[in-house]
Amino acid sequence: MTTATAASQYNRVAIILHWLIAILIIGQLAGGLYAAGLPREQGELARELFTWHKSFGILILLLSLARIGWRIVNPPPPLPASMKGWEVTVTKVVHFGFYFLLIAIPLFGWAMISSHPRKPPLEFFGLPWPLLPFFGAGSEETHELFEEAHEYGAFAMIALIVIHIAAALKHQFVNRDEVLGRMLPMFKK
Question: Which of 129, 137, 160, 180 could join 122 via S-S bond, C-beta 3.0 to 4.6 A?
Answer without folding.
Answer: 129
